[in-house]
Amino acid sequence: MAIGGLVAVMLLAFLVIDQVPFAWDRAIMLALRRADDPAQPVGPASLHEAMVDLTALGGVTVLTTVTAAAIGLLLVRRLWLTAGLVAAATIAGSIVSGLAKHWVGRPRPELVDHLVQVGGLSFPSGHATNSAIVYLTLAGLVAQVERSRAARSYTIVVAVLLVGIIGISRVYLGVHWPSDVLAGWCAGTAWAALWWWIGAWWRRALFARRRQ
């Protein structure tokens, strides 16, 4: 899963360098705008407001707050290994995400008006990448220490839904090409899968050492 996600991101990166934008990038973004006025998004005003609120769940402030709160709770519960893995995964992931943006250097889409203020480069979507890194990594690592199967399933489903809607909101608001978001989802999911594997390996190693 992790290798497949990284390969997908690399392929998308090479394609973006050679061809900006993809035909389906343009088609999807235009489909989300009114045909008579591309500056206006489809749907009622309440949908626009909801997308603005939802996209904030993938912003730096919210993700940092969620991560800090989760680590604090894990420390209170004395889940030292899980807390350390979450901290390492999220900090390293945000650095890698930023480096990827500068490596590709894709500008923001100008096909339609941006419905929120943004800056910086476009590929991969930072909101899509970092929300996947934070929410999916948290869900995966917490699932390793949660005994309730229902709670594990619920946590993972909520994380997937959050990551999905955050990515969709970036395209709806006109600040990212769909391929930016797809790459972010692939990269973030691959990163979360990698740290899930690291956590599982470390726990097995610790268990084996205790049995000796």
Write a structural description.
- With 212 residues, the chain is mainly alpha-helical.
- Helices cover 74% and strands 3% of the residues.
- It has 8 helices and 2 strands.
- The protein has a two-stranded antiparallel sheet with strand order 1-2.
- Helix 3 crosses helix 7 (149-172), helix 6 packs antiparallel against helix 7 and helix 7 (149-172) packs antiparallel against helix 8.
- The longest helix has 34 residues, at 178-211.
- The radius of gyration is 18 Å and the shape is elongated.
Descriptive keywords:
212 residues, mainly alpha, two-stranded antiparallel sheet, 74% helix
Write a concise synopsis of the structure shown.
The chain has 212 residues and is mainly α. The chain has helices at residues 2-18, 23-31, 45-55, 60-76, 80-104, 126-145, 149-172, 178-211, and strands at 33-34, 37-41.
Q: Rough shape?
A: elongated
Order of helices and strands: HHEEHHHHHH
What profile does the largest beta sheet have?
A: 2 strands, antiparallel
By DSSP, the count of extended strands is 2
Structural class: mainly alpha
Number of contiguous helices: 8
Q: Poorly predicted ranges (pLDDT <50, ≥5 residues)?
A: none
Distance between the termini: 32 Å
Gyration radius, to the nearest Å? 18 Å
**Percent in strands:** under 5%
How many structural domains are formed by the residues? 1
Strand order of the largest sheet: 1-2
Percent of residues in helical segments? over 70%
Round the mean pLDDT to the nearest integer and report it.
85
